[in-house]
Amino acid sequence: MAVLRTGVGRYAAAIRVTGAVRYYAASLPIRLGAAMLSLGVLVLIRHATGGYATAGAVVGTLAVAGTVGGPLAARLTDRYGPRRVLPPLVAGNALGVVCLVVAVATAAPPPLWYATAAVAGLCTPAAGSLTRARWSSLTPDRAVLSTGFALESLTDDLTFVVGPVLATVLGSTVQPVLAPLLTALLVLTGGVAMAVQRPPRPTAGRSGSPARAPSSRTAAPEAPTSATSAPATPSATSGVSAPTTPTGVPAPTAVSGPPAPPAMGGRPTPTAVGGALACGTRGRSVSSDPGRRRRFRRGAAGALAVPALRVMAGAFVATGVVFSGVQVSIAAVTGGYGHAAAAGPVYGCFGVASMCAGLGYGAIGWRSAPYRRVAVGFGCLAAGCALLPFVPGLGLLAAAVAVPGLAVAPTVIAGNTVVEQRVGAGQLAEAFAWLGGACSLGVAVGAAAAGRLVDAYGPRAGFLLPVLAAAAAALLVARSRRTLDPHRPDPSAGRGGRGIRPGRR
User: Over the stretch 172-190, which tens digit does the pLDDT of each residue have?
Assistant: First the structure.
């Protein structure tokens, strides 16, 4: 009973975080609309053409465009703020979806379908990335932040269970054009709701970098966390509150150390050196300063310049492979038993198990380092998927898929925590968007590869792909512990990179 009260208290504390929950609630229409869009477009084009070839190609275009556009839109939001970026972005998404519906309904040339789908995908906001960045900037306690990330993962799972079902029902029983048009309205409404909210100013405990509970290990001083952050200010101990970046993320607090890297656009960033303000490399061109050349290249790379993000993005590709590999294999197995319609409920057990595990994860105060939990989670995911080729019958298969499903949400939440620790505050939305894009890429690759395995070796052969992908991700994370450990110096910091975010969650 005490454990239950503690868990409920953690979620209550997360909900009470000023500003974060309102922003999270405003993002819900976008997330539901994004979850409905692909299947809504598939049903629409399938109804118009009578086949799946063109429908699948258009949906693939939509997915690829979303994978590319999400991180770019998040980078713009990190730099200019949601109030300036989200309204035109969601307007472009609505315009693309409406034009796609009109093009399909009027039998326009198929190239126009692909073009409008690309516009809609490029302009779909990565709402989950923006809200995770807001949680990070406003939550001072590690345990509460972990619970907030668990709430985000639970929402992702729930919307991607409800959204496709809603799109199918509307498109199949009411009107094929209704689901895509509803997604455009939801994304537009959510984008405006997120844009009109003023980023709350950090409290006294959050000046500088977001305040965290002290770690049991001594951490290095925090360097400026982003090239797009505001200039450094006097230390919080002087009684002066630090400014915030456009997304509401507190600007880094000045500490003694080397001059900060120049901000975007080539302007030098003032920094406190021995208590006095000094400037960076004013007057030196990028071509004449090797250090500035490296920082210029890193600025173009954005958040991907952080080694820890590249590692976690590679691991999240494996997550997408697991999702699609399990789904394709379940569809093949249920079809082999003559019950193709059972594929949805069986795969639903995978998603329900993930939601339950994520709910429990957020109620626990974890002491182990997040990167260790990621490695263990991928290992459990591989072990769970290894059972699936040998499970007979649909009933037992539905129970068996819940075993790897229990590892999904905890692994994803811990992975987001690793990125939050290692990426600068002014680039968190972009970083989380890259994780989502990596997962989407894995879904596409996994679906194609699992389909080939099923065709060549039988329905259950597709389950081997998730096993290999999860095992490879576990090995990648385990071998990259020096890069992912927040208590070790960031290898990018010495080249004008972001500072570390010490501590465990």
Answer: 788 889 989 999 999 999 9
